[in-house]
Write a structure and sequence with these properties.
alpha+beta; 258 residues
């Protein structure tokens, strides 16, 4: 007991009655260590995630809003083009200039040889009001009906896309939460396995354990560390997936509370 390392003393204690080392009561749980930028740790519930993603996420706009807006604009522009009368206004000016006369022609014998040897403006103005196509074999009606059905389909698709986006966001949210909890469990396993290694070392010094016990406990520690590294990678991947759906900077870390 006098040579018990600090890590062992944290998890085990000496029983004077039994003259053996026994486990201590479970220590208070330590806060989970986070990966990612520590300067951007946000407390995030599922409800807040939904609200923020639908308000500012580029992914949401690309998959849900943009197709609907495009169909809506197409429908309204089709209605305007087909059923509203057109108003056009055209203004212009023309001029003539005589650069020379062919000898022997009537114009060459005219007395006023300066006639038409300059710019003589001939302005023209055209105004068309209320131009409207009354009938074109139902082509306009068919085009309008196609645009209307396309917009109606876009509205239904918007509802479905919105539902799909929220399902994906919920899955990403809880995938990150599960990954964080698994990583915390792996971290505790590393601490316990390291404490066991220290315990075995102390038992070797008093002749209560063998080198094979130390080798076995050391291998358990290495396996626990590998599992912790694997879970840390899983947390990072889940975090990036949620960052993308949320429209946040990649690496923004969340403390999930749902």
């Amino acid at each position: 007991k006098n040579h018990a390392p600090k890590a062992v003393a944290e998890w085990y204690e000496w029983s004077e009655a039994d003259q053996v080392i026994v486990p201590r009561a479970a220590p208070a749980r330590r806060p989970a260590q986070s990966t990612g930028p520590q300067e951007r740790v946000e407390v995030l519930s599922l409800e807040d995630a939904m609200k923020r993603a639908t308000e500012r996420s580029p992914q949401y706009k690309l998959s849900v809003e943009n197709p609907y807006r495009l169909a809506e604009l197409t429908f309204h522009s089709t209605w305007t083009r087909l059923f509203l009368p057109t108003l056009s206004f055209t203004a212009g000016s023309t001029s003539k200039y005589t650069v020379g006369r062919i000898p022997g022609t009537p114009s060459a014998n005219e007395a006023d040889i300066t006639k038409n040897q300059g710019y003589l403006a001939a302005p023209a103005l055209t105004l068309a009001v209320g131009q409207y196509n009354l009938f074109n074999s139902f082509k306009d009606q068919a085009a309008f009906e196609l645009a209307r059905l396309t917009w109606d389909r876009a509205q239904q698709q918007r509802v479905e896309n919105n539902r799909t986006f929220k399902v994906n966001l919920t899955a990403a949210y809880f995938s990150l939460k599960v990954a964080q909890e698994k990583r915390e469990a792996a971290r505790r396993s590393v601490e316990i396995s390291q404490a066991i290694v220290e315990l075995v070392k102390s038992r070797i010094t008093v002749g209560k354990a063998q080198e094979s016990d130390l080798a076995s406990s050391t291998m358990d520690t290495l396996n626990a560390k590998n599992e912790y590294n694997s879970q840390t990678t899983a947390v990072q991947q889940a975090l990036w997936a949620l960052n993308t759906l949320m429209g946040d900077v990649t690496g923004t870390y969340y403390r999930l509370i749902s």
